[in-house]
């Protein structure tokens, strides 16, 4: 067989004489390539199964302890690590130390037993939270306080079931704070979309910090009241409010009673139950490294804790699968203290769906009665009728400043002076040192892994002079990456082709490279093409980050492992990578920059101009999860990644805005 270049020259001569048209040659090859790129290689369920296994194995188990002292050492370390290494990273450390402002506004006199005081408070500088304080009219001495948080309910603090709960608390003599949540009620703006909190992560500042500060500042408001009893501090909420409840209750030791309602499950449970995966705030970066939700539940010991779930929950966290692992983890710890009865559970059957209706509310009232009003024989857990006192959202509206920070505005400010990593020097010795040091920094940011590839040939065909093989590239028995290779006679080297649309979208580029004399391997790394999880894929991206890895690091490691395999399989050291689109272009640059040996050269088509584009164009993590690698923009941007890879190795063709 003639060498590929001679075939192309011969085809050109034939075309010039009218015997054969070049368009026909290319069209025939394009048809063959496109047909083979579209052929499936993996079982459709395999990407999901492998992602589940990958995440589940990395969730830390409950520690084996035999004494209260041993447990408390562990719990205190886990609490501090979570606060320092998850919640308060980057600029969030300064936010934590910022003296918060509280401003009380209008007071609504609504009933003989209580009034509603409107207020707003700063969660962090310039970000104000509207809230309502349900204050008993007659206060004599210290009284219990309850922080009432809400979940994904567009009514926000005006939700009827939440108002009824707060009214009932106030009528029983408690101070009840009803806070608004990001993206809900008065804060229902697109820039408070929870999937945009990850813009802060990209800048190296914890996106979870505003959520935590909104809750902890709410507790500050309650406990600053002259009648607040610091020994009787409760938190409760539904759904996302249930998540808020366990998050603040496990980490803030001021909370003495907790009732999370249908709001969370262990990361182990979430890995297997798609309904429980949780949004960005419920799956913050690295939380699974420091404290799974099972540990957070156990960290409540010995304080009274009621775990409320719904038997037929159509949303998430159904009692049958979510509750047992939490009880199994936490009950032995409560029993170490001799307080096994302080951990309780309640399963709602009527209506049994996702709710905080009367049955669940009365379970809360019973819990409050048992632990906050134990000596009050007149206390009743029966709900006090109050429908007539429920107000409209307009009546409960709290005036906010004309300019209020949100996730996007905070990220825009943070990104302006990034990255702050040192620029590449020009002197060769200094440049070599810079690359060595910066490569180590990048490795830490992407949580770099090194996979060994075990190839499995699925098929081997010869079609119109092209050898086509399908492969399953098994990487450390963790990931199986589908690949299709194309060869035509002698070659000048191997090019690995990636495409944002998956390998089936790369047929034009494969043909172009094949006609230039390259062996071409088109593959689908994690999240793309056949490797894309069929449902809720981006939530697994969040989970990968929560358990201490990074989707971008996984993808880069897969590319490097595939390049090492290609070098062996096709007996060449001339391995290139060709990526089309800003997502695969970024992972290619990361792969080339993090591994100086494997990839000889890379071509990226239409990459981002800058990682700041992600923020400036207001992209959210559900759209392109790997772009939000924690702290990447704080240290690197596209030019510095190209410098790190070696600018002679990288060719850029066009740029694209996301």
Model description:
With 658 residues, the chain is an alpha/beta fold. The chain folds into two domains: 334 residues, Rossmann fold, CATH 3.40.50; 229 residues, 3-Layer(aba) Sandwich (Rossmann fold). 39% of the residues lie in helices and 19% in strands. The chain has 23 helices and 17 strands. The chain has a nine-stranded mixed β-sheet, with helices on both faces. Strands 10-11-12-14-13-15-16-17 form an eight-stranded mixed β-sheet, with helices on both faces. Helix 17 links the parallel strand 13 and strand 14. It is elongated and about 90 Å long. The chain starts with a helix and ends in a 5-residue tail after the last strand. The N terminus is likely disordered.
SSE layout and pairing:
Blueprint: H1 4-16, H2 22-37, H3 46-58, H4 68-87, H5 92-97, E1 102-109, E2 114-124, E3 127-136, E4 143-148, H6 160-171, E5 175-179, H7 198-202, H8 209-223, E6 228-238, H9 240-251, E7 257-261, H10 267-272, H11 287-290, H12 293-298, E8 305-310, H13 319-336, E9 343-348, H14 358-372, H15 407-415, H16 428-446, E10 453-463, E11 466-475, E12 479-487, E13 494-499, H17 507-515, E14 519-523, H18 537-546, H19 551-569, E15 575-580, H20 582-594, E16 601-605, H21 612-616, H22 632-635, H23 638-645, E17 650-653
Parallel strand pairs: 4-5, 4-6, 6-7, 7-8, 8-9, 13-14, 13-15, 15-16, 16-17
Antiparallel strand pairs: 1-2, 2-3, 3-5, 10-11, 11-12, 12-14
């Amino acid at each position: 067989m003639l060498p590929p270049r001679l075939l192309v020259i011969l085809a050109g001569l034939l075309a010039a004489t009218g015997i054969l048209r070049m368009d026909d040659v290319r069209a025939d090859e394009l048809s063959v390539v496109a047909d083979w790129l579209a052929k499936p290689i993996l079982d459709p369920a395999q990407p999901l199964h492998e992602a589940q296994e990958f995440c589940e194995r990395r969730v830390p188990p409950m520690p084996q302890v035999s004494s209260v002292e041993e447990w408390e050492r562990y719990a205190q370390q886990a609490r501090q690590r979570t606060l320092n290494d998850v919640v308060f990273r980057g600029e969030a450390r300064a936010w934590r130390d910022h003296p918060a402002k509280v401003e009380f506004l209008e007071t609504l006199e609504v009933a003989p037993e209580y009034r509603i005081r409107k207020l707003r408070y700063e969660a962090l500088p310039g970000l104000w939270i509207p809230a309502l304080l349900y204050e008993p009219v007659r206060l004599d001495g210290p009284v219990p306080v309850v922080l009432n948080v809400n979940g994904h309910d567009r009514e926000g603090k005006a939700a009827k079931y939440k108002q009824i709960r707060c009214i009932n608390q106030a009528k029983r003599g408690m101070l009840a704070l009803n806070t608004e949540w990001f993206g809900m009620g008065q804060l229902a703006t697109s820039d408070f979309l929870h999937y945009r909190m990850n813009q802060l992560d990209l800048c190296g500042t914890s996106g979870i910090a505003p959520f935590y500060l909104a809750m902890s500042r709410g507790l500050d408001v309650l406990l600053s009241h002259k009648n607040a009893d610091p020994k009787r501090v409760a938190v409760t909420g539904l759904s996302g409010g249930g998540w808020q409840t366990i998050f603040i209750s496990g980490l803030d030791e001021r909370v003495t009673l907790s009732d999370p309602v249908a709001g969370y499950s262990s990361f182990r449970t979430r890995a297997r139950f798609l309904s429980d995966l949780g949004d960005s705030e419920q799956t913050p970066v690295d939380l699974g490294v420091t404290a799974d939700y099972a540990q957070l539940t156990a960290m409540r010991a010995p304080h009274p804790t009621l775990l409320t779930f719904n038997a037929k929950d159509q949303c998430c966290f159904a009692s049958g699968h979510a509750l047992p692992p939490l009880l199994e983890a936490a009950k032995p710890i409560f029993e170490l203290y001799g307080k096994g009865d302080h951990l309780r559970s309640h399963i709602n059957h009527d209506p049994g769906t996702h709710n905080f209706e009367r049955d669940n509310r009365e379970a809360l009232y019973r819990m409050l009665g048992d632990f906050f009003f134990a000596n009050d024989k007149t206390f009743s857990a029966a709900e006090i009728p109050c429908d007539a006192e429920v107000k409209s959202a307009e009546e409960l509206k709290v005036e906010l400043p004309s300019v209020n920070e949100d996730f996007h505005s905070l990220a825009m400010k943070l990104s302006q002076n990034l990255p702050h990593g040192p620029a590449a020097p020009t002197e060769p010795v200094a440049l070599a040192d810079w690359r060595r040091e910066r490569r180590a920094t990048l490795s830490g940011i992407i949580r770099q892994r090194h996979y060994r590839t075990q190839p499995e040939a699925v098929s081997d065909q010869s079609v119109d002079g092209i050898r086509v093989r399908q492969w399953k590239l098994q990487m450390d028995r963790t990931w199986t990456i589908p690949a299709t290779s194309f060869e035509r006679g002698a070659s000048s080297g191997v090019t690995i082709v990636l495409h944002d649309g998956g390998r089936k979208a790369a047929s034009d580029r494969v043909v172009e490279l094949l006609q230039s004399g390259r062996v071409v391997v088109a593959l689908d790394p994690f999240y793309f093409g056949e490797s894309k999880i069929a449902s809720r894929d981006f939530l697994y991206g969040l989970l990968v980050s929560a358990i201490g890895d990074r989707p971008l690091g996984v993808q880069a490691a897969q590319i490097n492992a595939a390049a090492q395999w290609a070098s062996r399989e096709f007996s060449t050291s001339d391995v290139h990578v060709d990526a089309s689109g800003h997502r695969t272009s970024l992972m290619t640059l990361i792969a080339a920059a993090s591994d100086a040996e494997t990839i000889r050269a890379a071509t990226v088509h239409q990459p981002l101009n800058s990682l700041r584009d992600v923020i400036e164009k207001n992209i959210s993590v559900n759209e392109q999860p790997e772009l939000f690698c924690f702290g990447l923009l704080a240290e690197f941007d596209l030019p510095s990644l190209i410098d790190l890879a070696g600018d002679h190795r990288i060719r850029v063709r066009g740029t694209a805005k996301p």
